[in-house]
Every structure is written in C-alpha cells, then in structure tokens.
C-alpha cells in the first residue's frame, strides 16, 4: 500500500495514514472485505512504529470504515464506498444549547452548551481585539462585505480543512452572527409553506421553531445510539431539507457511523434534498476519534454550519455557513438583508487568534478540562443514584443525558428544581414526538465545578427520590 507521509505537516503520521486509507475506501480503490496490510507490514513499509499504524487502524474501526477479526487482521467494512467530489471555486466574484433561558448566577445551571467562561484567556483576547481595531482597514469600520471579511474567510477555510476535513473555497463561506442566524438563513433560502423538513427526534427545539416559521410539514425520525437511522426513511419520501447533528447528536449524543453518513448522502442525492449539518460542539471529543463532516462527502447537497460560541464564549456572536456553490448568491443576499454583516473587527481579531495558534491551545486545554469534569459528573451520578441512573452521549461534547428509573421530569418538576437552586432541561422539551423521553434530563458539565456538581446532585437526588 503506497502512502506518502509528509514530515513537514502538522498532522501526525497516524492521522495521515488514517486519512489516506479512508480516501482509498471512499473512492472504491479498496473494496468491501479487502484486507488491510498487517501492522508489522505497513509499519515496515512506512518506517513508522506499529503503534502508529495501530492508532490509524483504530480510528478507522471507530467510525465503521474498517472492522477487525481477532487473529486475522483488519478488513474494509461493507457499505462505505462513496464517489468523492472535489471542491469547486466560485466563478462569479461578485458573490465572492442555543438556550433562550436566562439563569441568575446563584442558580447551578446544568444547561448544555455553556463553556467554562472563567477559563477563557481574556487578556490574550483583549490584546488581539485591541490590535485588530487599531490596525483594521477603514473598510472594516464601515458597512462591510455581507459574506464576511475575505482574509478571515481564507484563514477559516484552511482551519476547517485542518480540523474538520472540509475542502471548500473561501467564497463558499458566509460569516454569520451566530448558529441561529445560519440556520435561519438556510431555512429562508430553502423552505416554503409546501416544503417538507425531516429532523432527528429528539432534536433542538429552537431549530424546530426556526423551521416552523416557514412550514408545518416537519417529520421526526427517532435516533438510536448512533443518531439518525436512514434505513427508516420511506422510499418514496421527498424531503426538501434534512437536519442532522452527525458528530454529536443533540441531545442524545450519538455519533453517526460512516455507513449511515454515506446512506444519508446517497438518499439526499436521490431525492435532491439538501442536508443541513449542524456541527455545534465537535471540537470536544474524548473517547473516539472525530469523524470528518458530511460536507466532505458531498459539496452540492450539504450545508455545514459551525460556531465559535462553544469553543470561545457565546457573546462573541460569530458563526459560519459553508454552502454549495449554487446557494452562495441567495444566502449571501439574505445575510445582507438580515443585518448587512457580522462584526468585522471581531472577524479580524479571531483570524489572528487562529493564526497565532491561541485558539487551538485554548481548545486543547478545555478538552482536557471538560473530560475531567465529565468523568467527575458521571462518577458522582453513580455515587448518588447507583443503578437507577443510565448515561447517554458521554463520548463527546459538553453535556450528557441522564435517564432515571421511575422518574418523570415534567415542567412542574423543572420549576420545582429551579426553586431549590438548580436548572435542568428535560429531553422531552426537545422531543417532537412527546412521551418517550420523560425520565431523561440533559446535564451540561463544561461550565460547572466539583462543588456545583455536589450541591446540584444533592438537590436532584432529593427531588428524584420523591418522584
């Protein structure tokens, strides 16, 4: 197997081997059932350690691209062939927890998506913002490009290629004021009263509300441990939009396998649907390697949306869309009509924050901290509730879902918990089909300390025991 390793690249050898073999599988160069070279053979051919090759193979196994047979070796999994599409440039240069609840500081807030705001390097960010404002071109202080600063989009393009495997041009990126704006722009562009939207169930209630402004034809599909189940799609279905969170299903936490990703993309191609991929907290993965985005599999049928609120702080109010080439002009125009442009000085500051490596360093620190907080929360949950609690979605993100036997988290119970000093969100609030998640709550852990966990779970235990 020929794999050229680049010593000058920032990616590890394991990551390079993983990416190359993955590309060979997706392109059909490696067929289903075909054996991969043994660890010893490939390590000798590439002059790397066996552990380096083993790490690459484990990454492929974790996302379902490869399976192993004890004593036999590693083999290509069935159902993962995909026709890859190269990124297209824009020809027309002119087109060049989402929580709505405000919680006071005295309340222990278990809401999802709240970072450890006290650990953000404010002084470093303040210096970058001050310098960006002083050095910004005059155009950045006026009514700027609705699509976003060109220099920022170029840096972001390279960053997404490195971190999420997204191959796109800067002209395909549209800077938004937040994730909600990105979803709203996509909905306005694609939906009418006759449109049909397919969504995961449960799914973020705010997203459903955004789509509901345009159509009442919203069809839920239940998720399992891996997320949405394309095998449940009706063969004669004709959705206009399919909304998914494949990297860490919200709220249940499933990670979509490569086979399902390909099945989802192939269905969208067949029905000419657009997939809206919300990648809200993919920067934080703990127990499994991060899979590449759906956009990687099809640049014409997938819209990718991301945010900096989770990796930095929510009030930065910067997100982005990566859109198919043919959708850039209408989405850009909708952005112009919405608020003309996002904060240009912050765009320049964030560009420098990325270029300096500060964003990557901050994410690495937070990833380690969040893993520790996740582990502590799970340990304490088992200490307080024993076999009565079951945990979902712990392998990634900033929250888990806890399921309690013989408990019901009604809105009345949530209000009671709030009165006692803790705020939790029931999964049922995000369920489109009501009744199947009544005993589950979302527990965000990124912004809470050990003392918060102990005090909050003590209150929770008292209430749950009286359910």
Structure explained in plain terms:
Helix content is about 40%, strand content about 15%. The radius of gyration is 23 Å and the shape is globular. Strand 5 (about 195-200), helix 7 and strand 6 (about 220) form a beta-alpha-beta unit. The chain folds into three domains: about 15-75, Arc Repressor Mutant, subunit A (Orthogonal Bundle), CATH 1.10.10; about 120-360, Type I PLP-dependent aspartate aminotransferase-like (Major domain) (Aspartate Aminotransferase, domain 2, 3-Layer(aba) Sandwich); about 360-465, Aspartate Aminotransferase, domain 1 (Alpha-Beta Complex). The protein contains 13 helices and 15 strands. The protein has helices spanning about 15-25, 40-45, 50-60, 120-135, 150-165, 180-190, 205-210, 260-270, 330-340, 345-355, 360-385, 410-420, 450-465, and strands spanning about 65-70, 75, 110, 175, 195-200, 220, 240-245, 275-280, 300-305, 320, 390, 400-405, 420-425, 425, 440-445. The protein is of the alpha/beta class and about 475 residues long. The strands form four sheets. It has a seven-stranded mixed beta sheet, sandwiched between helices. It has a four-stranded antiparallel beta sheet with strand order 11-12-15-14, with helices on one face.
